[in-house]
Amino acid sequence: MADEKITLDERLYDYLRTYAKSIKLSAPKFHITEGTDKSDNYVSLVWRVTIEGITEDGEDKKIQHILKTARASVIDPMITNIMITYMFQREMFFYKEVLPIFKETLKSRGEIIDDRFPILYDVSEEFGKEILMIEDLTPQGFLTAKLKIFDYPHLSLALRCLGEFHAYSFITRVANPTSFEELKMKEHLFTQKSYDNIEDEQKDMSKVLIDIIFQALANEDKHYIERCQRFIENMMPNMFDAVDGKAAEPYAVVNHGDSWTNNILFKYDKENNPCDLRFIDFQICRYASPVLDILYMLFCCCTQETRSKYFDQVIDEYYEALSRCIERAGYDPNILFPYEVLIQHLTKFGKYAAGMATYTIHIFTSNNDVKIEDVNDSEILQERIENDSFYKSMLRDTFKDLVDRNYI
């Protein structure tokens, strides 16, 4: 990590000098610090940058931004270097193409997009060395949630805001159909090509994670293991089908793709309740059924207790927020995305939740003090399934719920 930081700092300084020149800031001075904990990011490094300089008018100016860069080496064996490049390119596409289309479309309908995304200031698109410069939201009071697993207040707010975000796609589909065609992104992660090129290390890691699931279910009724076994045997084809936007038409939307707690910044009121949020990190943004984001939140980022108490309630809250946004733009949500279709899609694409849970729950339940390179260590995972009761219960209950709801 130390060597990686030194190397990236030099590249960042070169980039920042060019940026300062582009905004006509002379005699610039830069201060770069790590923007997140080491365990928070798996394909990126996040830096908090302060730029101080003199404007053309001779005034002192201070700028604070966030920089995202690719890691110098791959930490997660499930993700290749070329996939990281695709992910950075996807996030750039979201900020440079998707958001402007949404904003233009809603403005034409007399609406303004709720500002739930950081501002993109600049990018470097050099292949393999991509950099994004975005707004630092910390001064506005937006923070990463202390817990990686959603409780009801965080989940409710996140799904309501997600409903508004998905509504932008439904509105654009009818209000601006030509531009909507530009939003139909090709899948960049779960593809047959990437699966065919999977390396032995990735295959071994998949086997470890699958074995861990069966260990978590060892004392449960055998039908849970049988259903999970059937799912595992066809997991990748199921994932290919789930992320296929054509399979969700005419109800496919732009998904966030990775809406867990680390990729949502929350603002809190005086009672310490979440009252506002900003979505960040659109590297897995995709065009697919809107339920993929919902399933991801509910089955990868929530406990069974939260699901049992609030599942129907938060689904309704999501749909109400989506409906209100569509109605404000002058359209009928019962036509653009009927509630019955939402429920049908949850079952139709429910296998996506199982696939993502296989690869994410061990990450989302890891302690903050766990080194990032140890998250996918097979020996550590084996130790956790034997001794970490929370990790084991999350896996067990997630897959039991998926079977009980007939999603797998």
UniProtKB/TrEMBL annotation:
InterPro entries attached to this UniProt entry: CHK_kinase-like (IPR015897), EcKL (IPR004119), Kinase-like_dom_sf (IPR011009)
CHK kinase-like domain ranges (all copies): 132-328
Pfam families tied to this protein: EcKL
Protein's recorded name: CHK kinase-like domain-containing protein
